[in-house]
């Protein structure tokens, strides 16, 4: 279980738990098996991690269930203070956590630091919300009785995190869950379980230091997601599922949750349109486009997936975007100067190669990139293509890679039609100076979030989530804690 990576500081490597966390203790997986976690920039194996199975999952749920009663009944201020201490530690240890995020996920260190700060903000926000869960008391309109509306934690929750933000996505589930009084079984992504384990250890230490039940947070890494989620979803002690990942897997989990009418939150795939109108500030649009496209090398569900550009500025915008992409530096995320890291695995690179090749066969023109750089690791070059057919898979499917396809439009109505012409509705971006148009877009775009003259919407204090096939529920902001609360009405 030792790392071979020269990029991961030995002081960090020495403190990464690689087991299953059950009831406050790290231990090997029940079956004794492990799986490998690799650095996507070098393909080197970093760690062997415990490969949890059904028994580990059920042990973790037993621990979460036993911890639920004591945890839900502690004073909200105790939960708030715990989260605040975790925020402080994460902030203090930013460099260590960021090094791990880069080692297993590949993103440049500057982006990993930003992810740690983003994650910590969720923890701080929910440390503040933990003491603000309110209810209602009023006289019934008929005057016959009083109505009390109380909020209670849902219960033990299964939190399933994706690989693209190994700390931020778990923070925005775990922090509101703990703030509400829920306990958790965390299933990290198979490709990036190390950061989750490191952060879970920080939470475990803070719980233990306060003599709080350490079974509040349990972690089951696995190479077989179904062997963990299947038995948990079927177990009556589990009361909540929160999942971030693909729409396909989300639909499968929803079906599996249906028999028990389990509370679910689903943050699923996207196909974000990035609209540039003739009246846009093109400098700002290009800057926002690079940000919206290239964060984590395009591997985010809020990545701009289709650049819909009005005819009058399309050529100019495309040329400028290609110039900006030429300045990006592809490399290992820990190397100084790197601005674009690798994709997460070989199959991801192969898929991007394929959808670009199909678009080119269909008449698309490559301005920059369009190839795999000649270096070890799972890299793909930052790429701009235009003359893309709206039917091409490059724009009809989520790319999850550093490729910016440009499609042109004539009128605002046409732009809205193209933008909405997808089963997804997570986020849209629009660049325009016309406030009236902004309001029309806010009315007509089928989306859960809209960035106006901004290439980034994510913010711990705002409701993150989508409509249509992009999901159910919201994470972050005031809404995020609601996902972990039930409502009890008392007629008095
Ligand atoms: C995601 O890609 O799933 C989340 C990105 C974000 O929170 O900004």
Characterization of the model:
- The chain has 492 residues and is α/β, with parallel strands linked by helices.
- The protein folds into two domains: 8-267 and 469-489, Aldehyde Dehydrogenase, Chain A, domain 1 (3-Layer(aba) Sandwich), CATH 3.40.605; 270-450, Aldehyde Dehydrogenase, Chain A, domain 2.
- 40% of the residues lie in helices and 20% in strands.
- It has 16 helices and 22 strands.
- The chain has a seven-stranded mixed β-sheet, with helices on both faces. The protein has a six-stranded mixed β-sheet with strand order 9-8-7-10-11-21, with helices on both faces. A three-stranded antiparallel β-sheet has the order 5-6-22, with no helix packed on it.
- Helix 2 crosses helix 8 (225-233) and helix 3 crosses helix 7 (193-209).
- The N and C termini lie far apart (59 Å).
- The structure holds succinic acid.
Record keyword descriptors for this entry:
single chain; 492 residues; 2 domains; alpha/beta; 22 strands; 6-stranded mixed β-sheet; 7-stranded mixed β-sheet; Aldehyde Dehydrogenase, Chain A, domain 1; globular; binds succinic acid; Ald_DH_C; Aldehyde Dehydrogenase, Chain A, domain 2
Q: CATH superfamily of the largest domain, called what?
A: Aldehyde Dehydrogenase, Chain A, domain 1
Q: Tally the beta strands.
A: 22
The hetero compounds bound to this protein are: succinic acid
Question: Percent helix among the residues?
Answer: 40-55%
Report the end-to-end length measured between terminal Cα atoms. Answer: 59 Å
The 3D shape can be described as globular
CATH topology of the largest domain: Aldehyde Dehydrogenase, Chain A, domain 1
Q: What is the CATH architecture assignment of the largest domain?
A: 3-Layer(aba) Sandwich
Instruction: Please write the CATH class name of the largest domain.
Output: Alpha Beta
Largest sheet: 7 strands, mixed
If you average the pLDDT, what whole number results?
97
- So how many helices? 16
Rg on CA atoms, Å:
23 Å
Domain Aldehyde dehydrogenase: 26-487
Family: Belongs to the aldehyde dehydrogenase family.
GO molecular function: succinate-semialdehyde dehydrogenase (NAD+) activity
Protein name: Aldehyde Dehydrogenase
């Amino acid at each position: 279980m030792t790392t071979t990576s020269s990029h991961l500081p030995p002081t960090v490597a020495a403190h990464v738990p690689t087991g299953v966390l059950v009831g406050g203790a790290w231990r090997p997986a029940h079956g004794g098996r492990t799986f490998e976690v690799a650095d996507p920039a070098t393909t080197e194996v970093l760690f062997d991690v415990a490969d949890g199975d059904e028994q580990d999952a059920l042990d973790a749920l037993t621990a979460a269930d036993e911890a639920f009663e004591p945890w839900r009944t502690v004073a909200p201020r105790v939960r708030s203070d715990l989260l605040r201490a975790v925020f402080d530690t994460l902030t203090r240890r930013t460099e260590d956590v960021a090094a791990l995020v880069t080692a297993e996920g590949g993103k440049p260190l500057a982006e990993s630091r930003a992810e740690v700060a983003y994650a910590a903000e969720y923890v701080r926000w929910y440390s503040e919300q933990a003491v603000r869960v309110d209810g209602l008391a009023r006289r019934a309109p008929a005057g016959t009785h009083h109505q009390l509306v109380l909020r209670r934690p849902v219960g033990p929750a299964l939190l399933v995190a994706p690989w693209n933000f190994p700390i931020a996505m778990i923070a925005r589930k775990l922090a509101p869950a703990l703030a509400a009084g829920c306990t958790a079984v965390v299933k990290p992504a198979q490709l990036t379980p190390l950061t989750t384990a490191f952060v879970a250890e920080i939470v475990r230490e803070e719980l233990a230091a306060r003599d709080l039940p350490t079974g509040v947070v349990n972690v089951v890494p696995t190479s077989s997601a179904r062997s963990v989620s299947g038995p948990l979803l079927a177990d009556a002690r589990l009361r909540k599922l929160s999942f971030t990942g693909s729409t396909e897997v989300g639909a499968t989990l929803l079906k599996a949750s249906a028999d028990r009418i389990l509370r679910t939150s689903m943050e699923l795939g996207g196909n974000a349109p990035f609209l540039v109108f003739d009246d846009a500030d093109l400098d700002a649009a290009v800057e926002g486009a690079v940000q919206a496209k290239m964060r984590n090398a395009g591997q985010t569900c809020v990545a701009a997936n289709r650049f819909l550009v009005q005819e009058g500025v399309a050529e100019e915008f495309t040329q400028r975007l290609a110039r900006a992409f030429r300045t990006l530096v592809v490399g290992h995320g820990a190397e100084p100067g790197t601005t674009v890291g690798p994709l997460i695995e070989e199959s991801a690179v192969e898929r991007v190669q394929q959808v670009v090749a199909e678009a080119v066969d269909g008449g698309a023109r490559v301005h920059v990139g369009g190839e795999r750089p000649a270096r070890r690791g799972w890299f793909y070059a930052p790429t701009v293509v235009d003359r893309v057919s709206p039917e091409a898979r490059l724009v009809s499917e989520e790319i999850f890679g550093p490729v910016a396809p440009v499609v042109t439009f004539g009128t605002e109505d046409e732009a809205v039609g193209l933008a909405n012409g997808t089963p997804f509705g997570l986020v849209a971006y629009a660049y325009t100076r016309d406030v009236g148009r902004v309001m029309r877009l806010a009315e007509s775009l089928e989306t859960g979030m809209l960035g106006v003259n901004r290439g980034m919407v994510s913010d711990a204090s705002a409701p993150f989530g989508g409509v249509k096939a992009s999901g159910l529920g919201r994470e972050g902001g005031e809404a995020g804690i609601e996902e972990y609360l039930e409502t009890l009405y008392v007629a008095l």
